[in-house]
Recover the amino acids of this structure.
């Protein structure tokens, strides 16, 4: 990703400028709102910015401008897409805040999750009532605030786009993404609780549906087409971006599923086997259940979702999942989806520079260790 670091800097600068404007409103209201300012900046200061990068290169893929993002000229032309890329990062931060509450996660990127930060603030301040309840309520509100701000940031960028039809299409794609990821999140928590009432033959299909709507479209396909929309993509170009983005997004989430069970906590910032404690009904688990003997499958079902799983139980489940061949099958699915995405990218009617950058991004998101 030759220009990746500079593009990340551009998005970060846009986020910082936007937050400076919005958090000034918070300071005018009350100094008690300072934690909303501090914690929003904290959750927007890091991350890999994959969604922002896919949005930008979806735009460049269609525009084919071939300009140097290090150059000062062209900043006005870039403003709508950089704003959209930054809006995706705000949306993502909001989704993570809510996701950590849903999963009751203690950490995010190796640091306390949002609701734990607010909980600690309550405890340190000696306030009345329940610290955990205050933490959850405050994190929900911060997530809601960031969701609203993501819309404002997107609209600021689209207002500067001369092509109003392109602006409307980009806004439509953003709204569709928002609906799809919320639906996918609901389906995810539903699977953790309703899986026993579903036919065994449907477990894999239901896990794949969660992958598609909770992650694959939201993480890669939607950012690509939002960027493409801003550039005025044709129907054929939209189709090519989707043909590349969806299988790559599936591969991205399958890698995430493996990391959720086998990832190194020093790298992922999450406890080892966290998905096992949370009871995630991922494709990895669906495949393992298909491959395991009845007794092993019953044991997996019994232990999965127990937040008090001991380290030795985690290691036993990891070994069971690995030895039944589920990991190898998921790796094969990742490879197949990456190959499908690569073929679509090769045939796509897009700029040469964007094809190279998107190919580099594809390798980064599917070979990552965190």
């Amino acid at each position: 990703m030759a220009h990746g670091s500079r593009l990340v800097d551009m998005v970060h600068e846009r986020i910082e400028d936007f937050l400076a404007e919005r958090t000034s409103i918070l300071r005018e209201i009350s100094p008690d709102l300072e934690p909303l300012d501090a914690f929003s900046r904290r959750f927007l200061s890091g991350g890999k910015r994959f969604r922002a990068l896919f949005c930008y290169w979806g735009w460049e893929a269609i525009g084919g401008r071939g300009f140097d993002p290090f150059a000062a000229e062209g900043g006005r032309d870039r403003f709508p897409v950089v704003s959209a890329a930054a809006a995706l990062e705000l949306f993502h931060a909001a989704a993570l805040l809510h996701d950590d509450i849903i999963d009751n996660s203690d950490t995010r990127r190796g640091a306390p999750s949002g609701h734990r930060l607010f909980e600690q603030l309550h405890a340190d301040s000696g306030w009345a009532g329940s610290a955990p309840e205050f933490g959850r309520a405050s994190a929900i509100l911060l997530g809601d605030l960031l969701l609203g701000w993501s819309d404002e940031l997107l609209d600021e960028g689209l207002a500067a786009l001369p092509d109003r039809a392109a602006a409307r299409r980009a806004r439509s794609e953003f709204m569709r993404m928002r609906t799809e990821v919320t639906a996918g999140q609901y389906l995810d928590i539903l699977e953790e609780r309703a899986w026993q009432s579903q036919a065994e033959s449907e477990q894999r299909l239901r896990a794949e549906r969660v992958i598609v709507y909770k992650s694959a479209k939201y993480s890669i396909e939607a950012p690509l087409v939002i960027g493409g929309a801003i550039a005025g993509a044709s129907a054929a170009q939209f189709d090519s971006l989707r043909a590349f983005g969806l299988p790559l997004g599936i591969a991205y989430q399958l890698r995430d599923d493996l990391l959720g069970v086998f990832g190194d906590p020093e790298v992922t910032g999450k406890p080892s086997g966290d998905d096992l404690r949370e009871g995630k009904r991922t494709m990895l688990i669906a495949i393992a259940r298909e491959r395991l003997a009845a007794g092993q499958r019953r044991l997996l079902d019994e232990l999965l979702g127990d937040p008090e799983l001991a380290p030795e139980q985690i290691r036993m489940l990891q070994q069971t999942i690995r030895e039944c061949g589920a990991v190898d099958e998921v790796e094969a699915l990742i490879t197949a989806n990456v190959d499908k995405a690569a073929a679509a990218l090769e045939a796509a009617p897009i700029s040469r520079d964007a094809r190279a950058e998107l190919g580099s991004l594809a390798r980064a998101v599917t070979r990552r260790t965190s």
Q: What stands out?
A: DSSP finds 16 helices and two strands in the chain. The domain at 4-366 is CATH 1.10.600.10 (Farnesyl Diphosphate Synthase).
